[in-house]
Design goal:
about 25% strand, signal, L,D-peptidoglycan transpeptidase YkuD (ErfK/YbiS/YcfS/YnhG family), L,D-transpeptidase catalytic domain-like, single chain, two-stranded parallel ribbon, alpha/beta
């Protein structure tokens, strides 16, 4: 009886040791994707389920660019370029509500005719990738009810007469993208804090059906919506680039 009891105790101890070894080898190893002692999302990934999407970040915008969005921003114009060498893009308006971003509208659009760049220069015909504030608007058309300061000037925003007819109303409505400019000044202000070689005068404006010099263009209805929605008190920004660089 005593020997049987010892044998049963020995078997129970061995089984317990095996169970503990198995448990430790599944937690905190390289295959689990987690550091020792850390659980939560990594444990879910190890079990084969995909991590839940982050409800806080804007869809398609990676951590690198999202970290550059000012904490006080409550409105984002996201420009999703089709490809690094493409002039086609999509503009989506997001508004912060509660703990997440909610889509308010989307429109087909165009960007620089040669695509996108991380290092924009004058006349490279590419739109700059990045996060930029939106602080002023204007155009040759009368103010449609813009919440941004609106500079109505039929001469300053007139397209050159030698441009094709389809381009003549490009600047009927414009919203200045604060790339290499003084934020808050009218879009027509030509000051270039980074120097002329870095380009400037990059706007959201009306679409003519093809690529631009570096601006982002969209339908008139989209521009009117943005002008009536973007509110300086909500610190609007544009997050723009080809989908690969946006998601990095």
């Amino acid at each position: 009886m005593h020997i049987d009891s010892v044998r049963r105790s020995t078997r129970r101890a061995a089984a317990l040791a095996t169970l503990l070894l198995t448990t430790l080898s599944a937690c905190g190893t390289a295959s689990s994707g987690s550091a020792p002692g850390h659980h939560g999302p990594a444990a879910s990934t190890a079990s084969g389920s995909a991590p839940a999407p982050d409800p806080v970040r804007v869809p398609g915008v990676g951590r690198r660019l999202y970290a550059r969005i000012p904490a006080q921003s409550r409105q984002i114009v996201a420009v999703y370029g089709k490809g690094r060498e493409s002039a086609e893009s999509e503009v989506v308006l997001y508004v912060r509500q509660g703990g997440g971003w909610h889509q308010e509208g989307s429109w087909a659009a165009h960007n620089g005719r040669r695509g996108w760049t991380l290092d924009h220069h004058e006349d490279d015909k590419r739109s700059p990738v990045g996060v930029f504030t939106l602080s002023a608007a204007g155009g040759t058309f009368a103010d449609p009810g813009s919440k941004l300061p609106y500079d109505h000037n039929t001469y300053a925003y007139a397209s050159p007469k030698e441009w094709p007819k389809a381009y003549q109303h490009d600047f009927g409505y414009v919203i200045a993208i604060d790339y290499n400019r003084v934020p808050g000044t009218p879009p027509r202000d030509g000051t270039r804090p980074l120097g002329a070689a870095k380009g400037g005068g990059i706007w959201l404006h009306l679409d003519h059906g093809s690529g631009t010099s570096a601006c982002v263009s969209m339908p008139k209805s989209a521009m009117v919506t943005l002008l009536r929605t973007l509110d300086p008190a909500r610190h609007p920004v544009v997050v723009m680039g080809d989908r690969a660089d946006l998601g990095a």
